[in-house]
Every structure is written in structure tokens, then in C-alpha cells.
Design brief:
This protein has 74 residues and is mainly α. The chain has helices at residues 4-12, 17-30, 35-54, 62-73. The longest helix is centred in the middle third of the chain and has 20 residues, at 35-54. The N and C termini lie far apart (52 Å).
Length: 74
């Protein structure tokens, strides 16, 4: 007799690739942070975007940012 996990896996593998991808997405999302955390991050992203759009946030060219990042990890 198979375990519930093995039976579930066997059934899931019978799904189409698109359905398996959707199932995987739903399962991964269920492991994610609570909605309050997601809402807080969305609010922070909006705040940061507003700073960039208003010119209050200093922007760094990509190459300079990559150089800084490489230096920080080496």
C-alpha cells in the first residue's frame, strides 16, 4: 500500500504540464509569508517607487551597482 504522499504525487504527475505548474505555484505560495507581510512589502515597494519618481531617491547606474555588489561579497 502506498503512502498518502506517494498516491498524491502519482496523481499530480498525471496532470498536464500546465496544471502541474499551476499546482506547484499554489503549493509554493502556501509556504509564503502571511498576507500582512506581503501587504507591508507592497506598501514599502510603493513608497520606494514614489521616492524614485519624485527624484528624492539617488539612482546608481547598473555597472556601478554591480561593482559594489561584487566588492561586498568578495
Amino acid at each position: 500500500m502506498s503512502t498518502p504522499f506517494a498516491a498524491l504525487e502519482e496523481e499530480a504527475l498525471k496532470l498536464s504540464p500546465e496544471e502541474r505548474a499551476l499546482l506547484a505555484d499554489h503549493l509554493l505560495a502556501s509556504l509564503g509569508p502571511p498576507r500582512e507581510v506581503e501587504a507591508a512589502w507592497a506598501e514599502e515597494a510603493e513608497r520606494r517607487l514614489a521616492e524614485v519618481e519624485s527624484g528624492r531617491a539617488p539612482l546608481v547606474p547598473l555597472e556601478q551597482a554591480l561593482t559594489r555588489a561584487r566588492q561586498a561579497i568578495s
